[in-house]
Fold this protein.
Amino acid sequence: MKPEINYQSTENMLKEHKKKIGDVVLVAISARTTIELPASLTPEERAVRIELYKKLHKSTI
């Protein structure tokens, strides 16, 4: 597979995924890190996702 075709495929997959999850909110984890979470999450669910992200990505925060 040529690199440009692979890039387009990945880009299309990302667009389709974003359509499926609907509206999102951006959450700042640190000054350099922002993640997207579904807007439909409750504040409690959002807090759980943020803590999980922090636990799994300690080296990048």
In short: The first helix runs from residue 3 to 21. The first strand starts at residue 24 and ends at 28. The radius of gyration is 15 Å. Residues 23-61 form one domain.
